[in-house]
Amino acid sequence: MTRTIAIIGSGLIGRAWTVVFARAGCTVRLWDAATDVRAGVIAQLVETCRVSGDDPAALARVTVCDTLEAALEGAEWVQENGPERLDIKRDLYARMDAIAAPATILATSSSALIASSFAGELAGRARILVAHPVNPPHVVPVVELCPSPDTDPQVMDRAEALMREVAQVPVRMTREIDGFVLNRLQAVVLAEALSLIEQGIVTPEGLDDTICHGLGRRWTLMGPMATINLNAPGGVADYLERYGPTMARLADSAARGEAFTPEVARLVAATMPDPAQVPALSQDRDRRLAALARHLSDKPGLTDP
Amino acid sequence: MTRTIAIIGSGLIGRAWTVVFARAGCTVRLWDAATDVRAGVIAQLVETCRVSGDDPAALARVTVCDTLEAALEGAEWVQENGPERLDIKRDLYARMDAIAAPATILATSSSALIASSFAGELAGRARILVAHPVNPPHVVPVVELCPSPDTDPQVMDRAEALMREVAQVPVRMTREIDGFVLNRLQAVVLAEALSLIEQGIVTPEGLDDTICHGLGRRWTLMGPMATINLNAPGGVADYLERYGPTMARLADSAARGEAFTPEVARLVAATMPDPAQVPALSQDRDRRLAALARHLSDKPGLTDP
């Protein structure tokens, strides 16, 4: 049976999700609150496919709907990509919970809001979760699945299975946590990076080189735990015995929230291309991420050490 | 003129550096304190090249020397890869500083020791620095160049130029700092990662997936600063204004040194392959890192956003 997926909100993330589900063979029903956005979305999806090298023929499975009700009709999964505002999410989830069939799962792409903050009072709160992608999900496979205290574990099981079926990589959290996993890790890196730049130890370019020609290379092939497992003859336990005290000392001396200052923001911004180039650079990034994904998956086993 | 490089210590790092310099056309003079290690090193270098896909013909430029004096003869750069022990480094640098011609630069691969800790008292302290690679440097290009307070800025200029000439990516620090840049960033990631695992929020596998199928993908193509520059319409300044407060809150609630416990080490180790597999897995990692480096450099401009 063909799966039917509803995409709510057709910005960059919503369009990327549309490609993920459509190329996996799902029927996709897309809705955006803005009429003019809906009118242009198919042309934008063709452009998304052109950049990533995905076959636009998959877009034949996409229907643009005129109402939220029409989009949710027959959907087993709703991927919502609305604005990151609590009032909007509360209204939207109340509406969707009233409309959607009982077995429909409602998932938000939100990076900033936990599910309990907008779903805690709803009758259907057991079927609501966060499915947070990395932008954009059609070229970066990870999806963080974060339940609220009310989310049914069977809903989490279904979410995990669906994500694998559409070739994403689900990461399941056991309970709700601010920032989920990915942004918690990104936050500590940004804090220490900004501090090193602000102190003048390294330039923003040097900081970026350290990751993209160094740690990032290893972390693309295996995560931080698998990485340290190969950095001592006796594996991860040996590594943590040898280097744990040094790493603990470095972590203790690292910067935290105070590193996010307007001064360092200006310092870093001064080294970056004009913000007018952000859309073109983002397209280039997506093209390169798609090529990297093909490189990694073209060689079976490469991404699973 | 062909450059002459001395490699001191022929463990994994020393052998990888040998390949870096030899394939770039340098004459390499290699010495190891252990006679039996010296005897087997060419065969090991052939194996290193086999795994990474480097042409072993470059090894014709490598001479294995019987003494430290012979290795340093005529060398403009010494890359030292001895044990990470302060007493050994102090003895070795005193010897090398006495032997080496005045213009020779002495660089250590040390990740744990800052240059002032073993070079501060030597007559030639102005020509001594840290050139810290990511293991192994022949397949991961970044090299951290960290001066002591005594290192001559012209020595740093020469170090940077040489590293670019042999196709590595130098990252220059302006002053000495514990952990340099790379391990400071790795330390904060490990601390928060171990804490999330210990709290049971995510499994070690899930943690690794979050990076290697998520953040790591982006960080291979561009560093953390270039990444956030594309995560808001107005670039990095816009990003830090929108999301800085959230990231600061996450960084403030992140774990630090206390996360490195024996309990979590056991927990992670239990999910990893048997430590006996570390050598085979490391070879596989190096093969994949080499393939990744070829993928990235085969497309000019890809690694320089």
TrEMBL record, chains A, B:
<feature type="domain" description="3-hydroxyacyl-CoA dehydrogenase NAD binding">
    <location>
        <begin position="4"/>
        <end position="175"/>
    </location>
</feature>
<dbReference type="InterPro" id="IPR036291">
    <property type="entry name" value="NAD(P)-bd_dom_sf"/>
</dbReference>
<protein>
    <submittedName>
        <fullName>3-hydroxyacyl-CoA dehydrogenase</fullName>
        <ecNumber>1.1.1.35</ecNumber>
    </submittedName>
</protein>
<keyword id="KW-0560">Oxidoreductase</keyword>
<dbReference type="GO" id="GO:0070403">
    <property type="term" value="F:NAD+ binding"/>
</dbReference>
<dbReference type="GO" id="GO:0050104">
    <property type="term" value="F:L-gulonate 3-dehydrogenase activity"/>
</dbReference>
<dbReference type="GO" id="GO:0003857">
    <property type="term" value="F:(3S)-3-hydroxyacyl-CoA dehydrogenase (NAD+) activity"/>
</dbReference>
<dbReference type="InterPro" id="IPR013328">
    <property type="entry name" value="6PGD_dom2"/>
</dbReference>
<comment type="similarity">
    <text>Belongs to the 3-hydroxyacyl-CoA dehydrogenase family.</text>
</comment>
<dbReference type="GO" id="GO:0006631">
    <property type="term" value="P:fatty acid metabolic process"/>
</dbReference>
<dbReference type="Pfam" id="PF02737">
    <property type="entry name" value="3HCDH_N"/>
</dbReference>
<dbReference type="InterPro" id="IPR008927">
    <property type="entry name" value="6-PGluconate_DH-like_C_sf"/>
</dbReference>
<dbReference type="InterPro" id="IPR006176">
    <property type="entry name" value="3-OHacyl-CoA_DH_NAD-bd"/>
</dbReference>
<feature type="domain" description="3-hydroxyacyl-CoA dehydrogenase C-terminal">
    <location>
        <begin position="179"/>
        <end position="246"/>
    </location>
</feature>
<dbReference type="Pfam" id="PF00725">
    <property type="entry name" value="3HCDH"/>
</dbReference>
<dbReference type="InterPro" id="IPR006108">
    <property type="entry name" value="3HC_DH_C"/>
</dbReference>
